[in-house]
Amino acid sequence: MWPSLRRWWGVILILTAVSATVWLAATQQLVLYIHPRYVVFTVVMAAIALVLGVLSLAVRPMSTDEPETRRGWSRVVGGLALLVSGAVAISLVIVPPTTLSSATASQRDIVGSTVGSDSQNVDDVANADDELIASFTVVDWSSLLRQTSDPSFYTNKTADVVGFITASDDDPANIFYLSRFTVTCCAVDAQPTGVAVYAPDWANDFDVDEWVEITGSFEVNPSSRSDLPLVLVPETMTAVERPSEPYLY
Amino acid sequence: MAIGTLGVVGLLGLRAFTGQLGILGVPGLGQDLLTLATSVIIESLPFVVLGIVLSIVVQAWLPDNFLMRYLPHRPVFRRAAISLFGIALPVCECGNVPLARGLILKGFSVPEAMTFLLAAPIINPITIITTYQAFGLDDGILVGRILGGLAIANIVGWLFSLHPQPPAMLTDRFAAQCSSNSSHHRQSRSEKSLDIFMRESSVLMPAVFIGSLIAGAIQVAVPRDVLVSLGGNPLWSILAMMLLAFVISVCSSVDAFFILPFASTFMPGSIVTFLVFGPIIDIKMLAIMRTTFTAKVLVQLSLVVALMSAFIGLVINYVA
Q1: Share above pLDDT 70 across residues of chain A, in percent, rounded to a whole number
Q2: Could you tell me if A17 lies within 8 Å of chain B, comparing CB atoms?
Q3: Residue B317 banded pLDDT, cuts 50, 70, 90
Q4: What DSSP state is assigned to residue A170?
Q5: pTM for this entry
Q6: Chain A closest CA to B73's CA: distance in Å?
Q7: A245 is a domain residue
Q8: ipTM of this complex prediction, to 2 decimal places
Q9: Are residues A118 and A229 in the same domain?
Q10: Measured in Å, how far apart are chain A's first and last C-alpha atoms?
Q11: Does residue A231 sit in the same domain as residue A109?
């Protein structure tokens, strides 16, 4: 039983990972885990693994390995490895797919993040038209805020941004961070960035991790508990569905 | 065929059913741990499969002496040539493990396979292009990465070639597999290919799954701002970069883009240390390499690579 299970375990795990990958790709949720540029490659290799896995089960090739005997701790470790990898495999097919949350955004230092620090340049943006400014994401505004905190620069520049709510440590009742993750390869390397939003008693209407769209302007921070120079003051703030591509690239 | 097809259809059905249920969601960092672990698995899967396929080609389809006949006979030059194999193989580090195992089974020595394993992810064409895209030729980062990676691979290969019994560096299971591989079994090439697929996936996939879980757990447990705060010091920034590379376990073909935002905080040598150390030693790689090498060898390997990566980083920090 044990040698037979060990021999087939890899195929079972690979077919489980392939099934999860194919389903995520078919439902356009693979981008919750990897950068879109890798989707085609990942699906192609998953298809190859699927063919090899199914053929292995069909042909059942004769093993050329010598029979392996495991005793004592080696058997315990082998059993534990089987249990842990099995538990991860089960999670792959039963846990609903989702993005990283505000807990990781906070843990990865959203306040000190330098992600996309050169995505926009103040000189280029100074006289930009409304259409360009309307296309700015959280990363673009965050980039500008790191370059200048002169309130006059932001006059007549209306931000329209989407992100999820991450609580602020300084003034949690009145300020939160409208956050996004940027990804270069996969969720493992996701780095958070965000803009501070001043919305007194926001928690009465919204939850941490909730996705919202905010239209507003950047103004001098009215909070006495936070030392951020500028904050986004919303004109409108509405709950929205998580975007189909929640990460920025 | 029917069992496999039914199994996959069943898994897809289960995934489609549970994907619509909200009740199985896990809150906060627990959910993030699973998201990170899933991300590592999905990101690694194509490279592991590609590595297994290449290993199948080497073991089952290439003539026995195809690779050997073109290599120099002197060990130093031979390892130097092997360390350049990666230029033709756009495979990340986890995909190189099954290929390295295939090379050993095909008659390469353990130090030679290790030289390939260490150099290939750093000098593969995608890694070089992405590193150039991220840093250009600034501060010697690209040159430091390529030369540093080749130097580490060849020096480690030479060090392990001094081992009196190289096969003792392998796990018992893989050593037994090497022995049985040298005996003759009657298998068609197709049957042998499927046998290799089953064998390699049974060895590698549990390691990928367990490594991904550990990598996810450590990522949610170690606050990244602690590491970033060490960026300005020549020595501490190098240690912080090695720790970050160890924890993050990101693929070598894109790690340059990942570390790019840190370039303003960390010194150039520290960035090179990240780019040289990470593709060789990280949580995921240690879990996968443990399928092939003994724990003692992996500890020695980690120490040597850490010391050499730190040395290269320090030299660049003080010179650049």
Answers
A1: 90
A2: yes
A3: confident
A4: S
A5: 0.81
A6: 31
A7: no
A8: 0.88
A9: yes
A10: 47
A11: yes
Q: Which two tokens stand for residue B281?
A: 């030693």
Structure tokens at A88: 């991860």
Measured between beta carbons, which residues in chain A are less than 8 angstroms from residue B201? Answer: 10-11, 13-14, 53
Residues of A within 8 A of B220 (CB-CB) are: 103-104, 107
**Which residues of A, range 183-212, sit inside 8 Å of B by Cβ?**
184-189, 191
For chain B, give the mean pLDDT: 86
Interchain CB distance below 8 Å, A58 and B21 = no
Q: What is the CATH number of the domain that holds A185?
A: 2.40.50
Residue A249 covered by a domain: no
- Which among B15, B52, B265 is the top mutation candidate for probing chain A, defined by the most A β-carbons within 10 Å of its own β-carbon? B15
Question: Do residue A85 and residue B41 have CB atoms under 8 angstroms apart?
Answer: no
Q: Which residue is associated with the tokens 């480690």?
A: B156
Per the structure, how many domains does chain A have? 2
Best probe of the B interface among A111, A185, A207, by most B CBs < 10 A, is A185
Q: Which domain holds residue A126?
A: 102-239
In a domain, A141, yes or no: yes
Choosing from A61, A94, A127, the residue where a domain stops is A94
